[in-house]
Amino acid sequence: MSQHHRDWAHSEVLGVLARSAPDALKPFAEELVPQLGDLEVVNSRTGLVMLPMRDTAQGTAFHLGEVLVSEAHLRCGPHEGYGMRKGRDLEAAMAMALVDLALDVGIAVADCHAFLATQRTDHAEQDRATLCRIEATRVDMETF
Fold it and tell me: In whole angstroms, what is the distance from residue 33 CA to residue 81 CA?
């Protein structure tokens, strides 16, 4: 089992990295490159993926439409790193894959966990601020 799976679920790592601001993610990932050694870029591309949604009334799944994403897949020996982000930012997808790869290899694990924790806190604050803005627009209607 990879080092990062002990403290963070892999899906959680990828979820936090996918939401991380590029201006924070890219410089952090650049610091990891010299520590990783020889890297193989398996994929670096943009494409369209279907956006699945769930109809809350009926509980059925449907596709809302297509979303442009950037994807990166790296390999370092037997270890792999993956990144997929909304939009056309291959550098951010590559940065995400570098952090994922570093965790899989077991390099700079404490630094990666600290970065992830900071990003997760930032995301929670952003979500709270968004919910407050939404709540401020709510209108209570009396039912007759």
Answer: 12
- State which H helix or E strand residue 136 sits in: helix 109-136
Nearest C-alpha neighbor of 77 from the set 36, 45, 107, 110: 36
Q: Could you read off the pLDDT of 73-119 as tens digits, one per residue?
A: 999 999 999 999 999 999 999 999 999 999 999 999 999 999 999 99
Residues whose CB is less than 8 angstroms from the CB of residue 54 and which lie 6 or more positions away in sequence, other chains included: 60, 61, 62
Per-residue burial over 87-109, b if 16 or more Cβ lie within 10 Å, else e, is eebbbbbbbbbbbbbbbbbebbb
Q: pTM to 2 decimals?
A: 0.82
